[in-house]
Structure formats: C-alpha cells, structure tokens
Amino acid sequence: MSTYKNIKISDYSYDLPDERIAKYPLNERDKSKLLISQNGTIQQDIFENCTNYLPEEAQLVFNNTRVIHARLFFYKETGAKIEIFCLEPVEPADYQVAFQETEEVTWKCMVGNSKKWKEGFLNQTFKIDEETIELTAAKIAQEGNSFHIRFVWNGGVHFSEIIEHIGQLPIPPYLNRDTEESDEETYQTVYAKIDGSVAAPTAGLHFTNPVIEQLTAKNITTSEITLHVGAGTFQPVKSATIEGHTMHHEQVIIPIDILRSFLENPNNIIAVGTTSVRSLESLYWIGLQLEEKRFDPFHPEIKQWEPYENEAKISIEKAVQNIIYFLAENEENAIRFSTQIIILPGYDFKLINGMFTNFHQPQSTLLLLISAFLGTDWQKVYHYALANNFRFLSYGDSNLYLK
C-alpha cells in the first residue's frame, strides 16, 4: 500500500508543447491518427481502420454519457458577472430525476467570481416556448471549494430544458478558448444519450456511424455503460507523491445484460476511454464487497484506495456473478454506484484486455492509468507520438492499447 502512495508524479511527465495540443477537432472524426501499441510494438494508421486491429469476438464498451450545458451565467444588479458551473445533483441526487424536476433542485457547483456573491439571490428571466421563466439561484452550503446551489423556477419546465436553453457547453480549460457553436456537435460522441457529464469521454469522439457498422460486420459486439464525467478529470496532481491527491467521485450505471455478456465472453473486453476503464475495473471491487458482505446498498461506492487495501480473493467471474445475483434479488436492472478508484502503476487489471484512449496531460492521474496498463512502454508510446506529429488531448488523435 505504502509503495503505491509513494509514487512520484514527477516520474510521469513529458514535455508537451502548446502547439501539439489540438484546439479544434479534424473535420472528419474518423480521419484522426491511430497509434496501436501491443506487446511493445508500435504502429500507426487512420482511426477509420481501427477494426483491422481488434481481436475477433472483441467486446467494445462505450460510455454513452452526454455533456450538459453546465455553465450558467448570472449578473448582479451591480453588473458583476457570476458563473455557476453545475457539477452534480445533490437533491434529488439521481441525475435523471434531477433533470426531470419542474420547480426546484440543488446542485453541487463551482462558482466563478464568488467573492462578488456573498449573499442574496441571483435571478434570470428568459422564455422557453413563449413561457416566461424566472430562475433564482441561492447558496445554501459550502463543500470545500464548491457550493450547494438551490435553483427555483416557475413555468413547469424540466431543469434539463432550463440548462439546455440558458447554459453553455463546457470545453476543456487547456483549449484556452471560448465554446463555439461547432463544439455542440464535435464535443459529443455520436452515441451520447444520457445527460450528466461536464466533460466528454473523448476517446469516443473518433467513432462514426460507419466505423460502428464496421464493428458489427466483423462480429465485434458493442455495449454501453454510463459514467458521468466530472470536472475532476482535469484536476492536476499538485502533491509530490500520489498520497496527497484526492480523486473525484463519479457516478456509474452498468446494466445487468452487460454483466451477463461479460460472463459469456470474458476475454477481449476493450474499454473505449479511461472512463470506461475505471467503471469496468470498479466492478470487481463491488463484487468483492458483496462477497465479504461490506457492500452498502444505500451508498454503494468504490473508494480511492480500495484496490490497494483489499486482497483480490475471488475471480472476476465470481465478482460479476455476485453483482448479478444482487440485482436479481432486488429486482433491479442495473448496478449503480459511485467510484473514486485510482489506477496506478502496478495495478492488476481484472476485466479489460485493451482500451481506446487519447493522449493525456503530463503529471495527470490519467497518465498514471496508462502507465498501469503499458508499464514503462508509456514513455516509448508518447515519444513516438511526439516524434510523429500526433495531436494531443481532448480533440487530438487516438490510441489503441492491447495486451
């Protein structure tokens, strides 16, 4: 355990020139470059040919979350501009229930220019389908650097309609530009369905409907899970060792049918994106909690250090079976939980055999996850990408890592 906590983040760095960060995507998603790394061998191609490198009977797991218009702007009577960045619902805590509310919700939010909003209400009036809506925001609590904000409105419209109408799509801060109309399409995957993320699962941005059709033609199955990506995905590691870094919590939903398919075909599970990796690997530890009767059905979660504080005593098959039995007994169709899991070099992957992912920032927890899968080859991969003009970060090029 102490070995993991003493990992120095400075050992997972590289020089990333600003000009290598893709500020905009390519005009055609699937024309991005694809770096393929397997058994220490690196090659490159175009993403539209990715099916040529996938093993037969592979099972791709996509994250079908959709990025919401999380940035809301209010103006005080003094003219001060206040930004409220919606992170996750508090009351009600379920995303879909919160989006369907028609009068009042409370969200955990970051507040920009909060010094100018010490007390009182923020108000905004606008129209949706000729209905005049008056929206009020009030601070009701503080949680670390965030606040609990209660939104109250009239008109009987859903909260999802309100943020879609007046909110702005958030894009990564390192793009150093404002959100543009084109981002509304390009910063969503073609299979995005479930509202909730404040950042896109960017590994999926390269997939197009023709590429997905190619997967089907090659008898490669596809499944969809949901992890709502939080703003913490951009949170830098500021401590010298990983022990001082606190991972963010993210909400996960995995349908029971997908769990059954994992039992039928446990090999060649390919995660599309690090969000899918973290979701799928968390499953093992949920199954172990059930085995050891530590599972809390009212607050199901995987904490940051759980994989390093508990011995992996059961097989992945037994872990998945435990979850299926639990869902069947409780007549539920999906496992829902919060994960804070951190995947570090030395981690023993339980479920996935490969992943699609983009290139990640230096000294980030996502780069640590990549190193956990590739070992020291991560340095060779990133050196190759820099030497061969690959584009980096959210709107950049793609990688396929296979065991």
From TrEMBL:
Record keywords, A-Z: Cytoplasm, Isomerase, Queuosine biosynthesis, S-adenosyl-L-methionine, Transferase
Keyword Transcription: no
GO BP, one annotated term: tRNA queuosine(34) biosynthetic process
SUPFAM superfamilies in the record: QueA-like
GO molecular function: S-adenosylmethionine:tRNA ribosyltransferase-isomerase activity
InterPro entries xrefs: QueA, QueA_dom1, QueA_dom2, QueA_sf
Annotated Pfam families: Queuosine_synth
Gene3D superfamilies, per database record: QueA-like
Protein name: S-adenosylmethionine:tRNA ribosyltransferase-isomerase
Taxonomic lineage from the root: Bacteria, Pseudomonadati, Bacteroidota, Bacteroidia, Marinilabiliales
